[in-house]
Amino acid sequence: MTVELCDVARRTLVELRLSTAEDGDLGNTGPVQAALDLTLPGPGRTSQVGGRLAVWLGPGWWLLDDRPDESGGLEAGLVHPLRATGPRTSAVDVSAGFVVLELTGPSAAEVLAHGCSIDLHRRSFGPGSSARTMLAKAQVVLARPDDGPTYRIWVRTSFSRYLVEWLLDAAVEYR
Amino acid sequence: MLIPCPWCGEREETEFHYGGQAHVAYPDDPSAVDDAGWAAYLFVRDNSKGWFAERWLHRAGCQRWFNAVRHTVTYEIAAAYPPGATRPVIG
Questions:
Q1: B90/chain A closest Cα distance in angstroms
Q2: Cα separation, A123 vs A109, whole angstroms
Q3: Using one digit for the tens of pLDDT, what is the confidence trace for A86-127?
Q4: Which CATH class is domain B2-27+36-81?
Q5: For A24-70, what is each residue's pLDDT tens digit?
Q6: Is the separation of the CB atoms in B68 and B56 below 8 Å?
Q7: Contact A134 B62 (CB under 8 A)
Q8: DSSP letter at A115?
Q9: Model ipTM value
Q10: B15, A133: Cβ pair inside 8 Å?
Q11: A chain contacts of residue B7, beta-carbon cutoff 8 Å
Q12: Considering only CB atoms, which chain B residues are within 8 Å of A133?
């Protein structure tokens, strides 16, 4: 088997918006980065510490992906750091809005390439890369968090069944 | 066609939404504008052959509006820049 698809269950997802960092200057986001214990990544990048992953989505806009936590601790823990960072900041728990999938294996990039216009070759989408893009006409966030041939896909819950069926179909020839 | 988003880099055209002519300024004194003036502001746009500054939304990516200078014959894009920036001089 050269490719494997799995559903990463019950991840805690928080969308973080910091208007003060829209120009790419993370100078005054210290309180937030300290609370998260990680460095917020720049355009097209991810950063991670332990089981916590941050993905750049747009200027001043990140997706945080953390271990399962039913208590909403990640969102609640950001309230005070956000106040200290400045006006027009937000952290919203969107765990129920997305399904998190992982596609792993030597052929994973080839499977994705059937429906994705991003160049997934290592030289342009290497470890630590991310993109908010289209995959098989579904809007997704795509990331390659580390050195392994593993791609993490965040897709809207309502699109997840379609996307999973598409991925299973696209992977048939790699079985 | 690849469109260079100022924040995300080159992406496929299907990720974007077209927003019409760029740099159409809102009237300085709206209450002084008559019906013909509003009609011109709302509906009348250039239809030039050659370099044309237009608005684009990176809908499937960073969800940001930006401006691009595109050649309406060759579809070549000479510049993409954030909203609020002045139009670069092309050619």
A1: 25
A2: 13
A3: 888 999 999 999 999 999 999 999 999 999 999 999 899 999
A4: alpha beta
A5: 788 788 888 888 899 999 999 999 998 899 999 999 999 999 988 87
A6: yes
A7: no
A8: T
A9: 0.87
A10: yes
A11: 43, 58-59
A12: 11, 15, 60-61
